[in-house]
Amino acid sequence: MKRTDKRTRLLAAAEALLARKRMHEITLDEVVKAAHTGKGTVYLHFKDKEDLFQQVPEACCEKLFCALDAVAKGRQPFAAKLDAAWDTLLAFHERRRTLFSVIESQQEYSSHLKCDMRRRINASQGRIWEGVTRILGQGAAARMVRADIPPEVLARYMNSLARMFARHFAAHRGRAEQKAFLKRFFAAGAFETNHTRLHSRRTE
Amino acid sequence: MKRTDKRTRLLAAAEALLARKRMHEITLDEVVKAAHTGKGTVYLHFKDKEDLFQQVPEACCEKLFCALDAVAKGRQPFAAKLDAAWDTLLAFHERRRTLFSVIESQQEYSSHLKCDMRRRINASQGRIWEGVTRILGQGAAARMVRADIPPEVLARYMNSLARMFARHFAAHRGRAEQKAFLKRFFAAGAFETNHTRLHSRRTE
Amino acid sequence: MKRTDKRTRLLAAAEALLARKRMHEITLDEVVKAAHTGKGTVYLHFKDKEDLFQQVPEACCEKLFCALDAVAKGRQPFAAKLDAAWDTLLAFHERRRTLFSVIESQQEYSSHLKCDMRRRINASQGRIWEGVTRILGQGAAARMVRADIPPEVLARYMNSLARMFARHFAAHRGRAEQKAFLKRFFAAGAFETNHTRLHSRRTE
Amino acid sequence: MKRTDKRTRLLAAAEALLARKRMHEITLDEVVKAAHTGKGTVYLHFKDKEDLFQQVPEACCEKLFCALDAVAKGRQPFAAKLDAAWDTLLAFHERRRTLFSVIESQQEYSSHLKCDMRRRINASQGRIWEGVTRILGQGAAARMVRADIPPEVLARYMNSLARMFARHFAAHRGRAEQKAFLKRFFAAGAFETNHTRLHSRRTE
DNA sequence: TATGAATGAGGCTTCATTCAT
DNA sequence: GATGAATGAAGCCTCATTCAT
Known about the structure:
The structure is a homotetramer.
Chain A (H helix, E strand, L loop, with lengths): L1 H17 L9 H8 L3 H7 L3 H25 L4 H18 L3 H12 L4 H27 L9 H18 L6 H16 L3 H10 L1
Chain A binds a DNA duplex through helix 1, helix 2 and helix 3.
């Protein structure tokens, strides 16, 4: 349990620091000071610095997935679920401005990594889209989300828009209005209309 | 002219390396080897490594703006211009997968910088959206793009989607189909419909 | 204690190297090799190379002061004390030919330094004269050293002569004779005579 | 003549910079900027940076010698000549606080140098003492300077005291009084008395 | 298990020197 | 002869990693 405790504290410290800096600008000294552990302790729980930071997104993505999955499992109508999904996603990205850089570099480098490591990373990243995909899948089943673009693709659109929002509009004064713009735009792009129905039929 | 030459070659070398690695993983040795210059030459044109990499986006964004502006100034109908804009944006992001990380970190750190430096960075980044904004503005003027979301906001949506596409779907086998999805999604989200017209009227 | 050990070894190594070269001609690599430590260790104990070399005189001057103070506290007659002081001073300068350059450059640059640093340097340098001053003060009290020039001024004369001697006459064949010249010269210059007594009376 | 001009300007610039910094802290860029020449010009007149700075004392010492020799050749009584020598020496050292470091390092390194270079350096440094030695020699001939210490040794004493004075008492408020102390001390140490006459006889 | 002093490979930067103009 | 842009060797410093305690 103590073991878990230190490990968790290290991951939390790393995640917190990622809010302000990129991984390569964070020193292990900073991490262990924030986590109140010794420097050697890192190497009891992680192979190296890289490994520690690799596992930060893993934990985060899992948390995000859980939050979205909870929404998906709820009994609210689809529109409410989508709203909740937006809020969850936006909060996630606003709180972790640079986390996605780590994820992106993992993607960049996954080709150099050993096979099982790659699988682990892909699995963890998949969780990000998976939660959103489930909700959008429900919407598609209810004929509310367009069927001519796969839900997992729409999920990525949604995530990328959320990330961009966190970067450009979150600290804005007009955040609420901007959020409305965003939802409206996505709804118009992703919802089923007569037009999209024609498309679906054609591609079927 | 030779001076410009070396400077350009260094920027080009740095840009090329940014396609594969992040700035902190690129050594000056790599840059100067790629640029076929001596290491000291860097310091004739840039204050330090940081400064060199700061100026890479500046040059790139300008190039992107020029390409998009050329489209905007063309005489094709709006639909063709938007298509061309997509192609330009996608090519830009596919060729410069990690460039945006540099831009993002500039945003992150611009608060620490001296005022004129910050202004320079913001100006250069503004160019990215500016080209797209012009085209979408023409669409809005032609009543083809929804008027209830400002074109400069839609421009950011478009850019973030393009960036995501470069990362997730570019290397895909089904790139063509994915590109069709993307355009269709954006069109649905951004084009004027009866529904958006109602919105515009309300917000007016 | 180990910490002190490394720090001491680094200072000793730097001091030893200063016997042969000036600070700017000594590389950190040489110092750490001589001290049998790693390069990084320097930065655990000193801010940078400058700081390491700044602290060398501090330690040396303290040692010199201790040696001279021991003489001053002894029960020998003044003449014997002065003899011992000469031997101590000459040994000091012969062993540390270039150390004084460091001290001089500290004086040169102390104006640029922060106030407490400057105070520390001045305090440490003061020790050099302080030991000699005490002995000469005793001589003055015993009416053997002229009273019309303050002992702390005579102390500086003595030190500068010792330094010059280390540079010009130490390696000489006729070192013994030269040493006799030096002592005789200083004695004639510093000792009380009828003539100096007149001076003192006049200036009183 | 143009050639001489540039060479002179470079030496003057180097000498001026030596008033504030040590050779190793002065860059060639600074020198050529101060001398208003190009960087390559240095290598037309000097073998390298070392050679340039080696020649600075050479020129300075020669100037000092000339000044002192002029005094020696004058018709004033010895006491006035010695006074003039003090003034010349003090002015020299006060104006060139760090020049002597260069000379000292030349001595330090002369052992590594080629034979003719060493001879040149020694010759140039000899000039420093030579001027003073001549004057003191005249004093000895006139039985005013003690004969039991060779004039060339006393010359070095005098020079070392002058150097120390420039460093410790020149900027002082009580400079005039300090100067009086210094002259009085040296006179007492160097002048012939009954006592020194006994010594001379014994050593003869 | 936990620590943090010690390490040294590797990176950035400086600056004396060269050489094409 | 005069120049200064270009060079790269050499040095300082950082920081991930180790290991004795």
